[in-house]
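Morning run. Coffee first, then this:
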Amino acid sequence: MKTRKNAVNKRAIVSVAMLFAFTVLIVSAIFDVLNLFADDIFKLIHAITGILFMILGIFHIVYNWRTLMHYLKGRK
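And here it is:
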């Protein structure tokens, strides 16, 4: 399979975005549980980031489907 030198690696972008969203989810959850700063702001950030994380998770599965199936078939 030929690839262009300037091709965008969608798998890498989705993985990095998921890492960022997961980090924001953890931080916002800690701030919310400890009642630090404005409660409503961190609840909103947590909710929006959670939705983003779920959407990115779907893209992650789609872009890595072949690798995932290969891994699962090898585990039998």
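The chain is about 80% helix and 0% strand. Good start to the day.
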